[in-house]
Amino acid sequence: MSIKRRDFVRHASMTVLAGALPVSLVELAFGKQRENISFAYISDSHIQHIRGNEFVRNWDRGLIRAVAEANLLNPRPDFIMYGGDLAQLGTKAELDHGAEIMSALRGKVRYVMGEHDYYLDLGEYWSKLFGPQYYSFDVKGVHFVVLNSILTTDEWTFNRWPTGEQRMLEMAGLDNPNGSPFMVGEKQRAWLQKDLARVRKDTPVVVFSHSPIQKIYKGWNFWTDDAEQVQEILRPFDDVAVVYGHVHQIQYNQIGNIRFHSVMATAWPWPYPQSYAQAESYLPKLTVPMNRADPFFERDATGWQMIDVSSGKVALNYNLYDNQNRRVGFNPATGQPEDSAYQAPASRIPPQTHF
Ligand SMILES: [Fe+2]
Ligand SMILES: [Fe+2]
After folding, report:
1. Does 55 have pLDDT greater than 60?
2. Model confidence, pTM
């Protein structure tokens, strides 16, 4: 543990330093001068209440570790994002407990809404703790937008379930056919259009959502129903990145001017849909699936991210607790996001079977 921790700190510091290249080098590489900008990204902790003061210990531990490691980053990240699903069933006990663990973070923290935070009381208590469910902000010349992408139809939300608890349980299952596809919705799309109207088209735009703003696999709600309409609003910008949680696995993709990057969970990893033989694969072509070395190792393939935006294009450094760290960033030579170690087919680790 102590050796891994030391390696991690060294790795994290080097990554931040790599983002602080001399200006001339940055200009050379990217043709544009940009200040060093980075942020830490923690997601999907699924804090789960048992009874009284008891919470599921593993999920607590995952978040506590991410908070402790993010606090060791030096230089400090410009801010910290939390990507949604802080709670498992959206209760006050879970959100309070999660907020208390998060309160140990040094620096400005911002939050994205997850479906596990939302469907008990439709985000009421979450909003009291963490503020608005969609908003934007600017840091060092980059425009950041946060969307609540886990909304669904009014019929499903308001008319189908006798209690908030049941509604929450129906939406919380990974492959429950009683769930409903996520969407950003008309109201937020109108807001987004208005928000972006005042942003220059050559400003880098980074969008945070909980579900992917692209369609990957509907059966597990790795999906946003109005993804194309949101992408259309983002289309006029030179350079857009969408960073999302929810899928608990590494995914990346590019659709036109928009690059998509998922983040890891601190709680548990999901398998890739295609690892279920019956599920047709919609995993973006670019994505090199991560190596899942040991499905019985509770921390395998969980972790958090340090995201470097110094080139104007996000590069995700995946800090994986008990797996190989990964870096997925824009490769100017190919014009697409790539895994710095494993993109080349010859360097990939063959998938393993566990039966
Ligand atoms: Fe999640
Ligand atoms: Fe989720």
Report:
1. yes
2. 0.89
